[in-house]
């Protein structure tokens, strides 16, 4: 498999290729001014956040040691914990773990590759490692050319990966907090309340009552559009007298006959 760049080793699979080199070089020479601003900003942000990140890391590490020695778990906001699939990451969620790590690693190395190409540092290729279930991307560049660069150029390359991860984390946070607004066009609102579950001992449960996934539009004559209307209508129903309904005579006769018929059967069985 040497021609494909694929290597299978104990507990890991490695793939290295130069196939993407041309694409990376093309990206690095497009919009030069914008990329220059982008990577310079990355250096500034990374340098500013570096001492903060180190402080948080030291704080969490010390908190772990102190909590373990004293048995105190009060400071739960400062905990350093490794994410290990199958131990503290549910196996059912492992696909999200793998996808997230893969995207973060790929975006990180893409930053290094584009920044290196901009600084005229030779790129040998990019690679991917699957170690057990952990996907890891990497980029191979000419280390001698990297060391020969001036400090600003080296910083632009070295900080590019961290900078890309910071941006990716910020974008993910924005999407997370705006998630309901992003997907709102796909949902219908203010058209009733959706029944998600019903208590097993509820008198409403049954074929002639409610079922999960039902939508309630009215309670008696009180219109229900949202949760606030739902609670308002419930209170209104409790406070007001129970309404009566007009029923046709033939329906009453049928109900009366059925009741009388079942009563006779029940009495006969009981006497028997």
UniProtKB/TrEMBL annotation:
Residues 96-231 form the Peptidase M50 domain. The chain crosses the membrane at residues 37-58, 121-141, 162-184. One of its GO terms (biological process) is membrane protein intracellular domain proteolysis. GO terms for molecular function: metalloendopeptidase activity. It comes from the Eukaryota. Keywords: Membrane, Transmembrane, Transmembrane helix. It is a multi-pass membrane protein. Its EC number is 3.4.24.85. GO terms for cellular component: cytoplasm; endomembrane system; membrane. Zinc metalloprotease that mediates intramembrane proteolysis of proteins such as ATF6, ATF6B, SREBF1/SREBP1 and SREBF2/SREBP2. Catalyzes the second step in the proteolytic activation of the sterol regulatory element-binding proteins (SREBPs) SREBF1/SREBP1 and SREBF2/SREBP2: cleaves SREBPs within the first transmembrane segment, thereby releasing the N-terminal segment with a portion of the transmembrane segment attached. Mature N-terminal SREBP fragments shuttle to the nucleus and activate gene transcription. This is Membrane-bound transcription factor site-2 protease.
